[in-house]
Structure formats: structure tokens, C-alpha cells
Design brief:
The chain is α+β, with helices and mostly antiparallel strands. 30% of the residues lie in helices and 28% in strands. The protein starts with a strand and ends in a 10-residue tail after the last strand. The structure holds adenosine monophosphate and glycine. Pathway: Purine metabolism; IMP biosynthesis via de novo pathway; N(1)-(5-phospho-D-ribosyl)glycinamide from 5-phospho-alpha-D-ribose 1-diphosphate: step 2/2.
């Protein structure tokens, strides 16, 4: 079949890498793609936020299956457009993607189905929000309701910080995303990510992961989109996964269907685990990035069969075939990230690294220029390896990191420490 993947990051490189290995794949196109993706698929520079453009492209290229990587096209209704045009699609409708696009919507769903999560309140004006913070005290968490590229959450350790966040949000720092604000209880514990495929009715867990959000070793410094990840997440034991399915994920799926907006795609549940129980931090309507890279490394070609079963509504017949293995990915970012960084420096040493079923450098922000690979993003490479143990995967990944010659890049040296 002919397959189109939307997106341009390491997540989409990993999806393309897994899909490409499946014999069902004939033609594989990624839009817009990047320099690493171009080594295994065709890239097409189209506007992936326009449903009409994507549908026309699918028709012109006889696309049988569309896989939507990032949240922006989901929130823009691209899955609605392709489904309406009769194209098999992996990814939720805009209405269902509100589980990521609106924090207060998710909180309403949790309340409606009694899913455990932090206590919360919603505000559209500063004065009552300030009064609520004064009443509850710190630590407390302030969130812009809408999509804010991962920057709309302030975990305030003092009341002053929380009040400053209120001023920023109602002062327009996050634009329309901050017109509504959710304030919630601070949850202590350890975070882990749980990935579940659902076709709207059936649900199939496809793996767990943990990422490292802070830029510096030892989880210090500013927040990022994720500096590395590993799978599985040992903190998310079978018992906790079962509790999360029974109390959070399945009730959410049923509530979305009951409202007439069934969720179809991957549900990424961010969980906070404390005293052997999980509570929901947030949902995302897509695979995590870089969590997807470690999931794909472990799933390989079967990922396509699972995504197809999800899109075709037959997840009740699908199964995940697990190897008892571990995968770990190290993000190499441009110096300066998550602040200002320069673009255009040349990355060397990639050609000499073997690409196998147990080691891959996924590209997140690269462009090919005059035969060289140049850095064009903040997070640039995802150096990913698989091993019989997490320690082995980690050693392999860092050996690959050390073989890459890119002085303008940096990475954390401790990815996986929590689990090792
Ligand atoms: P979110 O965008 O909702 O995932 O929030 C970003 C990060 O903020 C999460 O990954 C958590 O580390 C943290 N966070 C969000 N909500 C809470 C909460 N209620 N308690 C503690 N930490 C939180
Ligand atoms: N790595 C976190 C995310 O994809 O949201």
C-alpha cells in the first residue's frame, strides 16, 4: 500500500523507519520530512495543516493510508478531512484531539468518568484566579488551557511564581491558548508515559516510556521538549498499568464515545505515580517525541499492522509481540537550546554509523545541503539503541553519540539514570 506520514521530526523518522520495514508498504511519502527521512522515504513539501491540501495530495498520489504525527494537524482537523474523503487515517478527529488541545476539556472528561487526576478549577479572569491561588497556597500548577508548544505549564513552587504566571497568561503571553487558565493541585511522584492505541471502542496498550524534560544532567535547568527517553518505564509496573487502564484510559475512551466524539489513534497518557497508584497529568493525542523513537525501535515492522488495525477498527484482533528488550534514545540538540541557537552547522560522522534493527540515528531537525547534513532545529538528532538490558541500550547509544562529529551540538550524559 501507499502510505503518507505527516510531520518532520524524530517521531516521524522513527514511524517511517518502522513502516518501511513492513512488506505491506509500497510507496512511502513523508510530508514535509527532513534529511534523515529522505534517506528512506520520499519527502513532499506540502502544507500539512490544510486538510484540503492533504486530501488533494493523497488523491494525486494514490495514498491508501495516512498517519498523522504531530498535534497541530490533528487540532486543525486534518484527520476529519481525510476520513471524509474516504482515506484510511491514523489519528483522532479535531473534536477528539481536544484531549490534548484543551486542558479544561480533559479535566471535564476526567470528572465525568471519575478518572483520578489533580483537583482543579478553571478561570477566565485574573482576580478569581489570584484568590484561588491565595486560598490553596503553593506548590500549585498553572496551565494555559490551549496548545502552547509545551511552554504553557508553570509548576509554581511559591505563590509569587503562580501569581506571576497568572499575570503572564491573562497578559496574553500565550495568545488565545491562555485566554482560559486551569489551576491545579501539585502532584508529587514519578512521571511515566503510557501509550494506548484505540479505535474508539477497543484499546491496546503498546508500551511505556519515560523522558527527561530538563535540559541539564541530573534533571536541572529549563524544560525542553524532551532530551532523551527509554522504554519500558520500570516505574509503570503491570499492576499500575492495569489500574491506569481500568480507572483512567478505558473510562476516557467510553466517555469520548458516549459524547459522540470517539477517539481513534494513539492516546498518550502522562501519569504521575505515587504509592503504587497512577493519576492522570495530561493526555496527548499523538506519540511522544522522543518517546516514539524508543517505542518504534522496540516494535519494528509490526507498528504498521497495529496502526492499520487501529484505523480499521479491528484492534480487538490485534496483539503486540514483545521482545524482552529495552530501548533508549539520546537527543543531541543545538548549543543554546531551549533558548536561542544557531542553525546551519554541519554534522559529520553519521555515514559511518551502521543502521540496524537495534541502532538508528533518527533525525529531528536536519536539512541536506550540498551533500552535507546541517542542523536546522533545536533538537536535532535522536541517537537510539536497543539492548537486552537498559544499561546495554544506554552504552550503545552513547557509543554512537561519541562517534558523531558535531561540535555545535550537546546532549545529556545521564539519560536513563532514574531506571538504572
Ligand atoms: P503538561 O504539559 O500538562 O504535561 O505539563 C508539563 C509538565 O508539568 C508535566 O510533564 C509535569 O512534569 C508537570 N505537571 C503538570 N501538571 C502537574 C501537576 N498537577 N503536578 C505536578 N506536576 C505537574
Ligand atoms: N516528550 C514529550 C512530548 O512529546 O510531549
Amino acid at each position: 500500500m501507499n502510505i503518507l506520514i505527516l510531520g518532520s521530526g524524530g517521531r516521524e523518522h522513527a514511524l517511517a523507519w518502522a513502516v518501511k520495514q513492513n512488506p505491506k508498504t509500497d510507496r512511502l511519502i513523508v510530508a514535509p520530512g527532513n534529511a534523515g527521512i529522505a534517506q528512506l522515504a520520499e519527502c513532499a513539501d506540502i502544507d500539512i495543516l490544510s486538510g484540503a491540501t492533504v486530501v488533494t495530495f493523497c488523491e494525486e498520489n494514490a495514498i491508501d493510508f495516512v498517519i498523522i504525527g504531530p498535534e497541530a494537524p490533528l487540532a486543525a482537523g486534518v484527520a476529519d478531512a481525510t476520513r471524509a474523503a474516504g482515506i484510511l487515517t491514523f489519528g483522532p478527529s479535531a473534536a477528539a484531539a481536544r484531549l490534548e488541545a484543551s486542558k479544561s476539556f480533559t479535566k471535564d472528561i476526567c470528572d465525568a468518568c471519575a478518572a483520578p487526576t489533580a483537583a482543579w478549577a478553571r478561570f477566565t479572569e485574573a482576580a478569581p484566579a489570584r484568590a484561588y491561588i491565595a486560598q490553596k497556597g503553593a506548590p500549585i500548577v498553572v496551565k494555559a488551557d490551549g496548545l502552547a508548544a509545551g511552554k504553557g505549564v508553570i509548576v509554581a513552587m511559591t505563590e509569587a511564581e503562580a501569581l506571576a504566571a497568572i499575570d503572564d497568561m491573562f497578559g496574553g503571553e500565550f495568545g488565545a491558548a491562555g485566554a482560559e487558565v486551569v489551576i491545579e493541585e501539585f502532584m508529587a511522584g514519578e512521571e511515566a508515559s503510557f501509550f494506548i492505541l484505540t479505535d474508539g471502542t477497543n484499546a491496546l496498550p503498546i508500551g511505556t516510556a519515560q523522558d527527561h524534560k530538563r535540559v541539564g544532567d541530573g534533571d536541572t535547568g529549563p524544560n525542553t521538549g524532551g532530551m532523551g527517553a527509554y522504554s519500558p518505564a520500570p516505574v509503570l509496573t503491570d499492576a499500575i498499568a492495569a489500574q491506569a487502564m481500568a480507572e483512567i484510559v478505558l473510562p476516557t475512551i467510553r466517555e469520548m464515545a458516549r459524547r459522540g466524539t470517539p477517539y481513534q489513534g494513539v492516546l498518550y497518557a502522562g501519569l504521575m505515580i505515587e504509592n503504587g497508584r497512577a493519576r492522570l497529568v495530561e493526555y496527548n493525542a499523538r506519540f511522544g517525541d522522543p518517546e516514539c523513537q524508543v517505542l518504534m525501535m522496540r516494535l519494528g515492522a509490526q507498528a504498521l499492522d497495529l496502526l492499520l488495525a487501529c484505523a480499521e477498527g479491528r484492534l480487538d484482533q490485534a496483539q503486540v509481540h514483545w521482545a524482552e528488550d529495552h530501548a533508549l534514545t539520546v537527543v543531541i540538540a543545538a548549543r543554546g537550546y531551549p533558548g536561542a541557537y544557531t542553525k546551519g552547522s554541519v554534522i559529520k560522522g553519521l555515514d559511518a554509523l551502521p543502521e540496524t534493527s537495534s541502532q538508528m540515528v533518527f533525525h529531528a531537525g536536519t536539512t541536506a545541503k550540498n551533500g552535507a547534513i546541517t542542523a536546522t532545529g533545536g533538537r536535532v538528532l535522536n541517537v537510539t539503541a536497543r539492548g537486552a538490558t537498559l544499561a546495554e541500550a544506554q552504552a550503545k547509544a552513547y557509543a554512537m553519540v561519541d562517534a558523531i562529529d558535531w561540535p555545535e551540538g550537546f546532549c545529556r550524559r545521564d539519560i536513563g539514570w532514574r531506571a538504572l
